[in-house]
Design brief:
Helix content: 25-40%
Shape: globular
Mean pLDDT: 95
Largest sheet: 8 strands, mixed
Structural class: alpha/beta
Bound molecules: NADP nicotinamide-adenine-dinucleotide phosphate
Number of helices: 17
Length: 552
Amino acid sequence: MTFPDTRPEQAAAGPTADIDVLVVGAGVTGIYQLYRALQAGFSAQLLEAGGGVGGTWFWNRYPGARFDSESYTYAYLFSQELFEAWEWNEHFAEQPEIERYLNHVVDRFDLRRHMRFGAPVTSSTYDESSGMWTVVTDDGTEYRTRYFVAATGVLSVPYFPDVPGREDFRGESHHTGLWPTVPVDFAGKRVAVIGTGSSGVQIIPAIAGEVASLTVYQRSANWCTPLNNSPISPEEQARLRADFDAMCETLNTSASGFLHPIHDRQTFDDPIHQRLAFFESMWRSPGFSKLTSNYTDLTVNHAANALWCEFIAEKVRSIVRNPETAERLIPKDHLYAEKRPPFVTGYYETYNNPNVSLVDLKQTPMVRLTQSGIETSEGVREFDVIVWATGFDFGTGALARMGIRGRQDLALEEHWADGPKTFLGIQTAGFPNFFFPGGPHAAAGNNPRYNGDQVDFVTDTLIYLRDHGYDRIEVEVAAEERWTEMIDTGAVLSPFGESSYYFGSNIPGKPRKYLLNSGGRPKLFKEMRRVRDTEYEAFKLSRASDPAEATA
Ligand code: NAP
């Protein structure tokens, strides 16, 4: 079965009447939000800037892009029939399969006619007298909606470093997060890749075999370990189906949203030979289990972490034949999981290809781009194609660029000038009827699991409002302050260091604030339950239609 990227069928370019729920973003979270809103009986529409379904999995279509969470744990679990109807080919699916899956979901639940593509939102304004939002797309089309849900994701605004001369380069340039829908022809080309985060280390081995030359510009090395992907055998497919309920139970009770079992030992519980054997089993284990199933003190005991790092460093030295290159590929500035660790397939091996070279930007900094290439302190190298794998404006990037104005014309980006302020990573004070599941401050781990929790919470909240005769909801300032303080003070409990983009540190001028939630999913669950148990005590509920309450 094949699905094209986009289908002619989509919503007309403008609503005929006011909408109950307007969703922005056709990624994993937005699709589920649209499905749940429609299923609950609300009128709903979805706007998407891209030309098709997928969100992050639409834009990040570079060669080698694939899940590093297990496919069936990242996928939707709300329908057992859907789960059984879609057989993933691999434990970690590649982007084309993911995009096909998301299109399958959209068509299976007849969602496409509620979606409009190529429709970036340029302004979103709250009207105090009616309690409605007016959302405008770049072609001037206006949508009036009661509830406005931005499912715009945390990794959706690509970051291009401000390198002098960036616009002067005359060859082809592509950002991994803005990859064109027509394939890029790398055959026989001189290619540069800038950046060695999760995206860079995926594309590098994927294109090395077809290019004439590949030059990797690395500023910081990362602790990369093997993804250990494999096809899903028929026996495994059958087991996945049979174990659906148990799998859901494990995922729904796991703090990080993975199936990986938690280990029962600390690093120094084991003598050295046993520890090395365990590290070897970790090295051979799938994806994130190196973090989630490793010794339990890995991220809290520096000496323990350093041993795991030394194990990885030895692996790098054993794979990469050129000792200088190997040393450059071994991080010296951070321990494992201080930054989000990437998972790789044949990455270190790539540096043994004679056509691949590594430039260490800490030793030879980038000076500028020229019309024909990249100049470092060492000189100029010429290229046909430059790939920017330089990351994203994480967490708040998209929300800050949609012209969102709440009460008294308050701009969201001003309200969040010192960092996001949220309750549950779902609402912010001064912006009634506005929700952003899948945004900053939610949890950490396998995103669709906790973003799905947030969508369920938003939808249940809208149902509650309808059932109780309300049509306006705004979080209390005190609740927002409490949650935001919990995020800010809890940041020290996070394994991630301030050098991680999870603190906004990759974007010049961005406030250094933790953008995830160290309390994780358990804290999110606990607080959501408390909201339900206290009948929404943390929120102001009112009727916008009641003039006495219009500006309450
Ligand atoms: P990233 O992790 O932020 O990496 C950006 C890279 O660009 C880093 O190596 C960074 O170096 C480099 N860089 C930034 N500015 C630079 C400059 N001025 N000069 C030279 N290098 C510069 O971004 P990403 O690789 O796109 O990954 C972002 C996130 O997307 C991942 O952490 C992950 O959550 C997600 N992702 C997931 C998958 C998956 O699930 N399979 C795949 C790809 C991405 P420094 O480290 O020195 O800043």
